[in-house]
């Protein structure tokens, strides 16, 4: 009866729509509660002596490390904000280069079969090589400056950007492409008005993966002769056998990675408002 209510009977109750704001608040409170429980368990284990400062830092160890690095002269050649600023700068520069090369190349390979046949085999051969394997060549080509670190971050972040852009272009409905061609769209207009808008969700997925990969590669990149940075703090703390400083620097890598990913998600929501969760 097409879902119509039978006369004399009560209409079935409709599910109440849950505002998106409430869903976001619920997710936030659940995450905050889980984090608070983990911190409380850490304090309790330290209080009971289960956590040994020689193997895993206690809350007091981390607090001392936080105070030490917060003020001049800091730790490992700088204060916390100097290290955070330098690491964030490297990640953003490497990420920008990855976007500037991976997305256009993915569009090219997705739209041109000749380019795919030419570039695809080379990319397939280089893709399995881990970013750490490029460290010797990075030093040889670019020295011990920031250029080598940006290169390593680019190597790791380039692949997700290219693959997801390529997949996004290939997933565009062929009917839309043919319709655009019938209406006289040239190659440039086809890419601008059909392929790029149609592949934007996959492109942003690749950008999120690229950004996360860039932060994951940061520590290895800053082992290449770094004078400041969170990776430098981790390397120095491991030599000093300072687990409190190690955990504190790791926490800041996670915090900055989460904040930058959140910022990218906000940009995605502005560009693609219909994909908001």
Topology:
Elements lengths: L19 H28 L11 H12 L9 H32 L1 H14 L8 H8 L3 H25 L3 H9 L4 H35 L8 H10 L3 H29 L6
The CATH superfamily of the domain at 81-272 turns out to be: MetI-like
Look at the structure and give the CATH class of the domain at 81-272. Mainly Alpha
Biggest sheet descriptor: none
Rg measurement, Å: 25 Å
The total beta strand count reads 0
**Quick one: overall form?**
globular
Secondary-structure class: mainly alpha
Write down the secondary-structure element order: HHHHHHHHHH
* Second-tier CATH architecture of the domain at 81-272: Orthogonal Bundle
Estimate what percentage of residues fall within beta strands.
Answer: under 5%
- Named CATH topology of the domain at 81-272: MetI-like fold
Poorly predicted regions: 1-6
Helix content, binned percent: over 70%
Rounded mean pLDDT is: 84
**Count of alpha/pi helices:** 10
User: Gap between N and C termini, in Å?
Assistant: 33 Å
In oligomeric terms, what are we looking at?
Answer: single chain
Q: Briefly, what is this?
A:
This protein is an all-alpha fold. It has helices at 20-47, 59-70, 80-111, 113-126, 135-142, 146-170, 174-182, 187-221, 230-239, 243-271. The protein has 10 helices and no strands.
């Amino acid at each position: 009866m097409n879902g119509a209510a039978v006369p004399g009977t009560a209409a079935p109750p409709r599910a109440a729509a849950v505002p998106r704001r409430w869903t976001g608040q619920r997710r936030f409170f659940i995450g905050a509660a889980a984090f608070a429980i983990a911190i409380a368990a850490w304090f309790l284990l330290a209080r009971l002596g289960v956590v040994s400062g020689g193997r895993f830092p206690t809350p007091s160890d981390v607090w001392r490390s936080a105070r030490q690095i917060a003020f001049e002269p800091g730790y490992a050649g700088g204060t916390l904000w100097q290290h955070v600023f330098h690491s964030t700068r490297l990640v953003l520069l490497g990420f920008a280069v990855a976007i500037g090369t991976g997305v256009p190349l993915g569009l090219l390979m997705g739209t041109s079969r000749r380019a795919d046949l030419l570039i695809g085999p080379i990319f397939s051969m280089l893709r399995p090589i881990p970013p750490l394997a490029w460290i010797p060549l990075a030093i040889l080509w670019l020295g011990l400056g920031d250029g080598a670190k940006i290169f390593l971050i680019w190597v790791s972040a380039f692949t997700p950007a290219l693959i997801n852009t390529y997949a996004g272009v290939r997933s565009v409905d062929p009917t839309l492409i043919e319709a655009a061609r019938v209406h006289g769209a040239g190659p440039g207009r086809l890419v601008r008005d059909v392929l790029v808008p149609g592949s934007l969700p996959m492109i942003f997925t690749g950008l999120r993966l690229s950004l996360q990969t860039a932060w994951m590669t940061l520590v290895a990149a800053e082992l290449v002769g770094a004078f400041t940075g969170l990776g430098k703090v981790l390397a120095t703390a491991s030599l000093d056998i300072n687990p409190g400083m190690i955990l504190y620097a790791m926490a800041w890598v996670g915090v900055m990675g989460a904040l930058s990913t959140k910022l990218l998600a906000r940009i995605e929501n502005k560009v693609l408002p219909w994909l908001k969760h």
